[in-house]
Specification:
- The chain is an alpha+beta fold and about 750 residues long.
- The protein folds into three domains: about 425 residues, Alpha/alpha barrel (Glycosyltransferase), CATH 1.50.10.10; about 80 residues, Immunoglobulin-like, CATH 2.60.40; about 150 residues, no CATH class.
- It is built from 17 helices and 26 strands.
- The strands form five sheets. Strands 17, 18, 19, 20, 21, 22, 23, 24, 25 and 26 form a ten-stranded antiparallel beta sheet that branches.
- About 55% of the residues are buried.
- The structure holds zinc ion.
- The site of zinc ion has 6 residues, from α14 and α16.
């Protein structure tokens, strides 16, 4: 396939795409200018069309820059980890350096794999953050750390391992395509390289990508990663879209179109999500279900298969990934917005966990899939994941992280899944293996980059909200949009436009599904919003400097009920995390499996009861702290108040949170078994009086309860307004944090 033989546009009818029409999404513009070490993000739009297309086209790293509280948090991420990874562990010091080039086997733990995987995750975050913060120190680090591959990439290499030779059998076998750890790590690194190219326009990066992604002469092995699913396919599509490289095209076509027996064996496990096989009542779980899949692995895999639609134009790949997403959202979604992925998938639960590197992968995978589906609710989910689970991964100063986070963190080392180390829920400088220590670098920059995207008709779309500044080019005009806001802690987002010249184009604004009565004004005039404007309000006009859009998303407290199906501790299935083993029987029905629970949210934020910290130590709950409460779903929000104060700067997810909910709860005696933690059923609790408790955003509560057991409140005669709190009052430690004088919302 030659560079000039463009792929024909397939007929790609995907219902929601109709919203935006089936027009060609990308119009060839100027190819990227070379701007090495420049902090100015280039609009290096893809110029070679794929058969499938994205509903929304991502902008390069640096086009969106964080401001306000988001910038404070991003600086904490930089200073806490991204800029100092060399000091965190020697594996990072040697990652992808010129004098560290293991030959055999690249793929094994203990033979360099952590340096390569960890480097891949870290650089992915590093490149994005460097351009987003326009940070000279980080930009210099990008240049230095990417230099070995930029300078030595060769078509003879394997993936980004330029020092291996694909004509050498022992080198080929050292990446072990059947297992593929090395190729997996190379794929993660490739993401950093593509991001760097998009932001810098450095042509050496494009060449390095072409060298790595063209493996048509060796059986397209570089598409496949760990365990062989196509975790590098998105890289290769992005590469082709920019380079038009015929070898990369042939590699992708061979992988997605040739469909030999080996390919079928890769595709078959994913082709149909095991919907029917899942959750057959509560009695037992069939062997073949989602819980046998590994967290990072499945996220990367689904993004890879979805890329099959980008390449071939056939909807089946994306449809399959969407079906898996739907299934997992139904069964495994935690109230903090991420899936139960404590190595393996599992049912929603107060003491089940999400691994930090998996959370980063899930955030990226959800965004990748959103760009292809354009479903607004998927963007709502991204916000929920980022504002809650994203904030749950680290200490306030961003110098320590958890390997696993859980909805109820009553003690720092108690979780239900017995894989891994008991300290996995403890904040530490690093955890082994180093996947999460590396992956934590990705979370903020990933969210920041995709807050704005381009539409298929050369307009702009506000996808994810938080304070930022957008600088880009639309229809040949430089456009900047400042989004000033303390969202999600406040309800209003003000967007101010600056343009080189007046220009007509559409701006799409995402209206969150949870918001019942949104209002939007344009230059002080209210825009009539009907339900048809959801999830995206489209404003098409000639824009001028000084134009101002004000979005107001009133937030109403919501109580969401669910079932915690984790009654027993589980053990690692036989056969390894991604092997053929199963957790059959581990969740088998017991009298206890299926405990009703409830959580409270406001807008995209989950709220939690904070447990006081001993001397501000986020790993030490105050002895005898009271956290034993239950919620009555019928009355918890009867007299709910929302209390807001100014968002403090620098922002660090403070315990003294700028937004608090006061809700009704029952004191309820239940115990926390650190070995086998579980929520109690209603008849296992001694229910006391109803009282008011204060909840704060999940991310501000480093020790907390956010999934409450459910109980009916005692009759009104037993309600005592002034009943002393049991032991230390978890809701109001020390002085009462919620002054009655504060602004009171609804
Ligand atoms: Zn990890």
């Amino acid at each position: 396939m030659g560079k000039n033989k463009m792929l024909p546009f397939g007929i790609f009818i995907w219902g929601i795409f109709l919203i935006f029409g089936l027009t060609r999404p990308i119009v060839a513009q100027n190819s990227a200018a070379i701007a090495q070490d420049s902090a100015v993000a280039q609009d290096s739009d893809p110029v070679h069309a794929l058969r499938g297309h994205r509903v929304f086209e991502p902008l390069p790293a640096g086009a969106v820059k964080p401001s306000g509280w988001l910038r404070d948090w991003a600086l904490a991420a930089k200073n806490g980890y991204t800029a100092v990874m060399d000091d965190v562990d020697p594996e990072f010091t040697r990652a992808w350096t010129a004098d560290f080039s293991p030959t055999c086997p690249v793929g094994d733990w203990g033979h360099g794999s952590w340096s390569y995987e960890g480097g891949g995750y870290w650089f992915d975050g590093l490149v994005r953050l460097a351009y987003q913060l326009e940070d000279k120190e980080l930009l210099a680090m990008v240049s230095r750390r990417l230099a070995p591959v930029l300078e030595h990439a060769t078509p003879e290499g394997i993936g980004h391992f330029y020092w291996l030779n694909r004509k050498n059998e022992s080198d080929l076998s050292s990446v072990r395509p059947d297992y593929g750890w090395g190729l997996w790590a190379s794929g993660l690194y490739g993401r950093a390289m593509i991001t760097y190219y998009g932001a810098s326009g450095d042509e050496r990066a494009l060449r390095a990508m072409q060298c790595a992604d063209d493996s048509s002469d060796i059986g397209c092995i570089t598409i496949a990663g760990l365990g062989s699913p196509p975790n590098n396919a998105i890289n290769a599509c992005e590469d082709y879209a920019r380079s038009g490289d015929t070898g990369v095209a042939e590699t992708l076509t061979r992988f997605f179109e040739h469909r030999d027996v080996e390919w079928q064996s890769l595709w078959e496990p994913y082709r149909t999500p095991p919907v029917d096989a899942l959750w057959c009542g509560e009695k037992h779980y069939p062997e073949d279900w989602v819980m046998r899949f590994h967290g990072v692995f499945l996220n990367e895999t689904l993004a890879g298969w979805a890329a099959g639609t980008l390449w071939t134009g056939r909807p089946e790949f994306l449809e399959t990934a969407v079906a898996w997403q739907k299934l997992m959202d139904e069964k495994c979604l935690q109230p903090y917005g991420a899936l139960v992925e404590d190595e393996l998938y599992g049912p929603t639960g107060a003491y089940r966990c999400t691994e930090t590197c998996t959370l980063a992968a899930e955030l990226w995978r959800r965004i990748q899939m959103f760009t292809m589906t354009g479903v607004g609710e998927d963007a709502d989910r991204v916000e929920r994941l980022f504002f809650n689970a994203g904030a749950g991964t680290t200490t306030r100063d961003f110098t320590q992280h958890v390997y696993f986070q859980q909805p109820n963190r009553i003690s720092p080392n108690s979780f239900i899944y017995s894989w891994g180390n008991k300290t996995n829920c403890t904040f530490r400088r690093k955890h082994y293996p180093l996947c999460c220590t590396a992956g934590v670098n990705r979370i903020l920059p990933t969210y920041i980059q995709y807050q704005w995207m381009k539409t298929s008709d050369q307009g702009l779309a506000a996808i994810l909200y938080a304070p930022n500044r957008l600088d880009t080019t639309v229809r040949g005009t430089r456009v900047s949009i400042d989004s000033t806001t303390d969202y999600p802690f406040q309800e209003t987002v003000t967007m101010s436009l600056t343009l080189d010249q007046s220009t007509a184009f559409p701006i799409l604004l995402r209206i969150p599904q949870w918001c019942k009565n949104p209002t939007v004004t344009l230059n002080h005039e209210k825009i009539n919003l009907t339900t048809e404007e959801r999830p995206f309000l489209r404003i098409e006009r000639t824009w001028n400097t000084g134009d101002t859009i004000v979005l107001n998303f009133p937030m109403e407290p919501r109580l969401e009920q669910g079932i915690d199906r984790n009654a027993k501790s589980v053990t690692m299935p036989t056969g390894g995390a991604w092997g053929k083993g199963s957790v059959l029987g581990q969740f088998a029905n017991t009298e206890l499996s299926g405990v009703p629970c409830a959580s409270i949210s406001l807008g995209p934020l989950l709220f939690a009861l904070p447990i006081p910290e001993e001397n501000g130590d986020e790993n030490k709950p105050v002895h005898d702290a009271a956290w034993q409460y239950a919620l009555d779903p019928n009355h918890a929000l009867d007299a709910v108040t929302v209390e807001r104060s100014d968002v403090p700067h620098p922002w660090a997810w403070p315990r003294e949170a700028p937004i608090q909910l006061r809700v009704q709860a029952c004191s309820a005696q239940w115990t926390h078994d650190t070995e086998f933690p579980r929520l109690p059923k209603a008849d296992e609790m001694e229910i006391g009086a109803s009282r008011t408790i204060s909840l704060i955003p999940y991310g501000c509560a480093k020790l907390r309860v956010s999934m409450f057991p459910v109980a009916e409140q005692p009759s009104p005669s037993t309600i005592t307004e002034n009943e002393p709190a049991p032991a230390a009052d978890a809701a109001h430690p020390e002085s009462d944090v919620a002054s009655p004088d504060r602004d009171t919302g609804k």
